[in-house]
């Protein structure tokens, strides 16, 4: 038995079967390896489908952030924009703000960083640096 669901992120309606699988071929998942395990790609796709369905049930959605070395700051920027934070921040401005905050509160961060060959200030310069 299938039902229609709408993704709160704005994706089109899509068919979902009783196991939470969605999309074309949701009811036919016979592409298994002979040892009974799914390929890594299939397992990742299944995990993503189940996660998206669980989030949709709660009115939430999964947002893909490119793994470009700025992903933490891009994710924070995205969330600030989504909640309507008054000031617009790019990953660049958030990197600078984070580095400045860390420099002002060194004792809060120093012991949690692997600073074997570089100083705390050098680490903060790397955080601030926009490649």
Structure description:
The protein has 131 residues and is mainly α. The chain has five helices and two strands, in the order ββααααα. Strands 1-2 form a two-stranded antiparallel ribbon. The chain starts with a strand and ends with a helix. 6% of the residues are buried.
Describe this protein with a few key phrases.
131 residues, mainly alpha, 2 domains, two-stranded antiparallel ribbon, 5 helices, 2 strands, extended, disordered N terminus
Structural shape: extended
According to DSSP, the number of beta strands is: 2
Global mean pLDDT: 78
The number of helical elements comes to: 5
Determine the strand fraction and express it as a percent band: 5-15%
Trace the largest sheet across and list its strands: 1-2
Helix content: 40-55%
Q: Measure the end-to-end span.
A: 50 Å
For this structure, the quaternary state is single chain
Structural class, from secondary structure content? mainly alpha
- In sequence order, what are the helices and strands, one letter per element? EEHHHHH
The radius of gyration computed from the alpha-carbon positions, rounded to a whole number of angstroms, is 21 Å
Which stretches are poorly predicted, pLDDT < 50 over at least 5 residues? 1-5, 11-30
What's the main sheet like?
2 strands, antiparallel
């Amino acid at each position: 038995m299938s039902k229609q669901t709408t993704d709160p992120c704005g994706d089109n309606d899509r068919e979902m079967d009783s196991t939470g699988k969605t999309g074309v071929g949701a009811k036919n998942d016979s592409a298994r390896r002979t040892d009974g395990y799914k390929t890594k790609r299939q397992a990742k796709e299944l995990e993503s489908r189940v996660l998206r369905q669980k989030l949709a049930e709660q009115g939430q959605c999964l947002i893909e952030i490119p793994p470009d070395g700025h992903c933490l700051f891009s994710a924070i920027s995205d969330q600030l924009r989504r909640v309507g934070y008054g000031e617009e921040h790019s990953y660049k401005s958030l990197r600078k703000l984070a580095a400045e905050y860390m420099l002002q509160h060194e004792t809060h961060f120093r012991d949690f960083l692997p600073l074997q060959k570089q100083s705390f200030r050098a680490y903060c310069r790397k955080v601030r640096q926009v490649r």
